[in-house]
Design a protein that fits this description.
279 residues, alpha+beta, SH3 type barrels, Alpha-Beta Plaits, four-stranded antiparallel beta sheet, three-stranded antiparallel beta sheet, 6 helices, Mechanosensitive ion channel family protein, transmembrane
Length: 279
């Protein structure tokens, strides 16, 4: 009650507009707080960081649209005139900002399809794009390359290129060719069997995946043995440690059979000239 009369908000649209803006600001604060607390939680939740950020952006966008609609209604603007002006200016705006719109829809598809999320290592064989995803926005995605440089990629580009997500691999592959000398051809069969038995019993190798150890062909200066298998670990550093262990143990197997690794060699045959008959 103000001066014995009720304060009538209907007579003061500007007060109503301020109230709407205040409620919208409060809604933005609530969404930002929930987003921040969810991202800072140490325990895993049903939603990953990318999904939380995407849902928060959608809520903020809805709040902004609702605020604009209510504000236009409170200001008494004729929606028909607004539509007429919007239809003309909208066409020009859409033509001028087609890249912005395509990037926006590209960001929406990234949130819906989830080919990658924040923290994933991605790469593209079509473009020179490789690194860790740091941020997925409505217009661009920020990637930190392995030389620690930020890379900003428009979201629309992901609709036209192939993207690999090595972070979602289940194993890492070892694909090596071991070459021994031609002088050790008699030991090749035993070496292949020994390497196969060693890999089949190794705790570092995924036994439920394909394991191939076979004599694979005659090289230029070596007898080639194919070693193909998958490690259990997907961590990049640990993978190389396990691969090092595997290769050194294979080197020990070759040496234990009295064989040696081949290296490029050439054999030169020189013809000896026959002595000329005496006259």
């Amino acid at each position: 009650m103000l001066g014995g009369d009720y304060f009538e908000f209907d007579k003061y649209p500007i007060v109503q507009l301020l109230a709407v803006l205040h409620l919208s600001w409060y809604g933005f604060r609530v969404v930002n707080t929930i987003e921040s607390e969810t991202l800072n939680e140490t325990e895993p939740t049903m939603l990953d960081a990318t999904a939380v950020i995407g849902i928060a952006k959608i809520f903020r966008l809805l709040l902004a649209v609702i605020c604009m609609i209510v504000a236009f209604d409170l200001l008494g603007l004729d929606p028909r005139g607004l539509i007429a002006v919007g239809s003309v200016s909208g066409a020009a705006l859409a033509f001028a900002s087609k890249d912005l719109v395509s990037n926006w829809f590209g960001g929406v598809m990234l949130y819906l399809d989830k080919p990658f999320k924040v923290g994933d290592w991605i790469r593209s064989p079509d473009r020179e794009i490789e690194g860790t995803v740091e941020y997925i926005g409505w217009r661009i995605t920020r990637i930190k390359t392995f030389d620690r440089r930020p890379l900003y990629v428009p979201n629309a580009m992901f609709n036209n290129i192939t993207v690999q997500n090595p972070s979602r691999m289940t194993h890492r592959r070892i694909n090596e060719t071991i070459g021994v000398r031609y002088d050790d051809v008699e030991q090749v069969h035993d070496i292949v069997d020994a390497i196969r038995n060693y890999i089949s019993g190794s705790d570092l190798i995924a036994q439920d995946q394909v394991i191939i150890v076979n004599f694979n062909g005659f090289g230029t200066s070596s007898l080639n043995i194919l070693v193909y298998c998958m490690t259990k670990t997907i961590d990049w550093v640990t993978f190389h440690q396990h691969k090092e262990t595997l290769l050194l143990d294979i080197a020990g197997i070759v040496e234990s059979h009295g064989a040696e690794f081949a290296f490029p060699t050439q054999t030169i045959k020189m013809a000896v000239a026959e002595p000329e008959p005496e006259a």
